[in-house]
Amino acid sequence: MRAFAVSGYSGTGKTTLVEQIVKRLVKQGHVVVTAKSSMHEIHDTEGTDSWRHKRAGAAVTVILGPHSSAVTHNDRKSLRELLSGVTADFLIIEGLKEIEVPKLWCVGNAESEVGKLPESVKAVVTWSSNTFESDQRIPVVSSSEIEKIVELIRQEAVDLESLTV
């Protein structure tokens, strides 16, 4: 499994871009797994059965729905641990601005200083028709250039085993 991230600040179109990337990769025949980082802890709603299971001391809780399932852990696991045994071609991560994994940096309609971007940024994605200042080290692509974006991901994604998160 090869990993690539879509990062940027809140409201810059990360989720929309991830949706487009996943659709295109799946259409090309790839199996895709996604992961999203959150600034908030994951909590079961008080009183639910899964909340009661955790409160009783379960280390892992599995929820089986009619068409989906979820697994929650009482501690933070690495992506490698969580995806152990999962077979896929790509892992597309939304968020995790600070990790050293190749990434797109979404700026939405805002302006950003290229000099402040993490070293792992392979391209800046903009939704604006305004020109975005670049130092030529990092290409700037429009969110509508999905083929170009997916090709960049195919070229730059790294093996999941190389991740430290």
Topology:
Elements: E1 2-8, H1 14-27, E2 32-36, H2 49-56, E3 60-64, E4 69-73, H3 79-82, E5 90-94, E6 103-108, E7 121-126, E8 140-142, H4 146-156, E9 158-159
Helix pairs in contact: 1-4
Characterization of the model:
This protein is of the alpha/beta class. It has one domain: Rossmann fold. Helices cover 22% and strands 27% of the residues. The chain has helices at residues 14-27, 49-56, 79-82, 146-156, and strands at 2-8, 32-36, 60-64, 69-73, 90-94, 103-108, 121-126, 140-142, 158-159. The strands form two sheets. Strands 1, 2, 5, 6, 7, 8 and 9 form a seven-stranded mixed sheet that branches. A two-stranded antiparallel ribbon has the order 3-4. Helix 1 (14-27) crosses helix 4 (146-156). The protein is elongated, with a radius of gyration of 18 Å.
The helix count comes to 4
N/C terminus separation: 15 Å
| Largest β sheet strand count, sense and barrel closure | 7 strands, mixed
Q: Sum up the overall morphology in one term.
A: elongated
SSE run: EHEHEEHEEEEHE
Determine the oligomeric state from the structure. single chain
CATH superfamily: P-loop containing nucleotide triphosphate hydrolases
